[in-house]
Lipocalin-like domain-containing protein
Amino acid sequence: MKNKLLFILFFAILSCSKNKILKTELNKIQIIPSGEWISSVDSASGLSIRKDRMAFYNNNKFNSEDIAKYRIIDSIEMDDNNKKILGTYLIADGIDDTIVYKITNRNNKSISIELKNGRIDEFKLEEK
């Protein structure tokens, strides 16, 4: 009985927290422009974007299973009327798994992403 009361008390206190973390998906205007995004580390590697699909490629090649639907999410902390963006994330929903990448910098011509190995790579939109 004592454990049940502690459990209920814990969740009651937890739910009274003023700070709430929200995740909002960016609208279509805020998505990454379509095209080839070349890695600043290796010019034969990059990110291919078409509408709401993406694929990382190496040696200028990728397989169909590398293509994932992507979305960009802002993680926001709300406290009363104050809003603080905690981070922006690129979420790749693949066939077998979902991978989350932190976006450290983004504009219409370049994007910096923290990769799975912890390294940050900058990708620049290839000029046509």
Residues 2-15 form the longest helix (14 residues). Strands lie at 20-25, 35-39, 46-50, 53-57, 68-79, 82-93, 98-106, 110-114, 120-125. Confidence is low (pLDDT under 50) at residues 9-14. Helices lie at 2-15.
